[in-house]
Design a protein that fits this description.
By secondary structure, the protein is α+β, with helices and mostly antiparallel strands. The chain folds into three domains: 1-71, no CATH class; 127-303, Jelly Rolls (Sandwich); 307-379, 3-Layer(bab) Sandwich (Phage tail protein beta-alpha-beta fold). It contains eight helices and 21 strands. The protein has helices at residues 10-17, 23-35, 37-53, 80-95, 148-155, 298-302, 316-327, 353-363; strands at 127-128, 130-133, 139-142, 167-172, 176-181, 187-190, 194-199, 207-218, 227-230, 234-238, 242-247, 253-260, 263-267, 274-276, 280-285, 291-295, 308-315, 330-333, 342-348, 366-371, 374-379. Helix 1 (10-17) crosses helix 2. Residues 171-263 form the FecR protein domain.
């Protein structure tokens, strides 16, 4: 069975079920249904649960800005009941939004099964921000109005000897992200809680940067000067390509996902570099020095640069690490077994944290309590 069912908006399915779809929307759903039996089964489940739980009388109060306008929950066989009930609730939100403030009212017959985070506390998503630390120690805050290149020219310490290449550091704090273009034309999108050391100019036979955290690189091609991303676990070497590197200090691995071109990874415990092809991912275990190469959907690992998290069968503790970095929160588990729960779905990165937690609570057996900037995770 293909993954096509995962790429149709639930809104279209609901409009089709309610017989309010336009001719164009109806044709799109019919084409999707004809593609394979899996899509048909997905639709039949939707119809059954829609008829069971939706009455057309529910009232929804939502925050327009944070509306779940593109949230699509995938069919996870291990948790079908929770997921499909969540989908039905989402359908009502899409079709009958009343934009009059915060809070979410759900189906009366499911109210006792769901606990949501406090409506009185709102945690906003991260923003574009970073700090440029020159080799001299001088610091400059980077925002939309002050680009990296402008800061280098304007704030570069005077009297610096140009003979020696100086490395400067870009620090992206928790609750931030930053996009920059290096001297060679390479663009880098840096994720929250990450650090990138870059030279003020590239000289010699290679273009080398150092990364701690996560970043997506679009490397300008230069066959004479390979681009090298140095991490705590090893080096990623490329000539010109698009790839994502995940090398956070609190993880036990370094992971490189290749979108375009070709990269070679050599871990500190590896005798030879391993080359991967587009659509492949190499994971290097920092504890065992072992490597694993597999084909993946690269969209899952680059979606964070486009305002989404695409999650497929991810453990809750891994999801909460991402949320902690992006929303600058601390996570505490009242029940450690909650870490092992698995979630599948699309999440909108620029929604308030409260909305994200409500979605996860609807589709897993956990609830969240929010105290200031601490999220307490509990089993239901």
């Amino acid at each position: 069975m293909t993954d096509d069912k995962r790429h149709i908006n639930w809104d279209l399915i609901v409009r089709h079920l309610m017989d309010v779809a336009t001719d164009e929307e109806r044709e799109e759903v019919e084409r999707w249904l004809a593609e394979n039996e899996g899509n048909g089964e997905y639709y039949r489940k939707a119809k059954r649960y829609f008829e069971t739980y939706y009455t057309g009388k529910e009232t929804r109060v939502v925050d327009c800005k944070g509306a779940w306008n593109e949230f699509v929950v995938y069919a996870d066989k291990s948790r079908e009941t929770h997921i499909w009930r969540a989908i039905v609730k989402y359908a009502a939100i899409l079709l009958f939004p009343l934009c009059v403030g915060f809070g979410y009212w759900f189906l009366e017959n499911d109210e006792s099964q769901t606990t949501f985070v406090s409506e009185d506390i709102s945690i906003e998503p991260g923003t574009t921000k970073a700090v440029l630390v020159f080799n001299s120690g001088q610091q400059v805050k980077l925002t939309d109005s002050i680009a990296f290149g402008q800061a280098i020219e304007k704030f570069k310490p005077s009297g610096q000897v140009d003979e020696a290449v100086e490395y400067n550091k870009i620090i992206v704090p928790r609750g931030g992200e930053y996009n920059l273009v290096l001297a060679d034309g390479t663009s880098v999108m840096i994720n929250s809680d990450s650090k990138l050391n870059v030279p003020d100019r590239f000289e010699g036979k290679e273009r080398r940067v150092r990364l701690e955290g996560e970043a997506l690189f679009h490397v300008a091609r230069d066959v004479e000067h390979p681009f090298i991303v140095e991490t705590v676990g090893g080096d990623v070497t490329v000539l010109g390509t698009v790839f994502n590197v995940n090398a956070y200090s609190d993880e036990d691995y370094v992971q490189t996902t290749l979108v375009e071109g070709s990269v070679a990874f050599q871990g500190k415990g590896m005798a030879d570099a391993k080359t991967i092809s587009p659509g492949e991912q190499i994971t290097y275990d920092l504890q065992t020095n072992g490597i694993n190469v597999e084909r993946v959907n690269t969209d899952i690992f680059t979606a964070w640069t486009e305002g989404k998290w695409i999650i497929e069968g991810m453990r809750l503790d891994e999801i909460m690490k991402q949320l902690a970095r992006w929303y600058d929160i601390t996570v505490f588990y009242q029940n450690p077994e909650a870490k092992e729960l698995v979630f599948t779905g699309d999440l909108e990165k620029y929604n308030k944290c409260n909305v994200i937690l409500d979605i996860i609570s609807l589709t897993t057996n956990v609830e969240f309590e929010l105290k200031e900037r601490v999220i307490i995770v509990k089993m239901k």
